[in-house]
Amino acid sequence: MFVHVCMWVRVCVQVGVPRVQFPPTVGRRGRPKTGKKTAIGWRKDRHAMCVPFGKKSLAERRAVMLHKIVEDVRVEDVSEEHPIDDACLQVDRQPLPSVLFNTDVNLSEIKTLMSGKAWRRLQQAVQAQLAADKWFCGCCMKDVGSS
Prior knowledge:
By secondary structure, the chain is α+β, with helices and mostly antiparallel strands. The chain is 20% helix and 9% strand. It has 2 helices and 3 strands. A 3-stranded antiparallel β-sheet has the order 1-2-3, with no helix packed on it. The N terminus is likely disordered.
C-alpha cells in the first residue's frame, strides 16, 4: 500500500516498517565550478603565501639566517652535533646581509649551531657593521644612510 505524501516522496508502509523512496539523482551538467581551487590549482583556503619571519618556526628562522652567512656547507646538515666552523662563514665581505639586522632576528638562536670561534667572528662582524653604520641598497649598492 502506497501513500502519496508529496509529488516526489512516497512512503511505503509494509508490515509496520516505513520506507522512503527519493527521486533519482540528477547528474551535473556544464563546466565545473572553480569555487574550491584557484587558477593554478591551489586550494582557496591557502591564502598566506609568505609567512612573516617572526611567525616562522625556529628551524625555518635558523635556516634563513644560516643560508645568508654560510658557504661550502649545506644548511640542512648543520646541527648542534655538527656545528659550523669559522672557515665556513662569509662574514668578511661587506656589507653583511640585512636579514641579520632586522628587528625580528635574534642572532642567539643560531649560537648553538656554531663553534665558539665562529660565533665570536660573527659577533665581531656584526658589531663592525653597526659601528660603520652604512646601509647599502641591494640593487645599486649605494649607501642608503647618506641619502
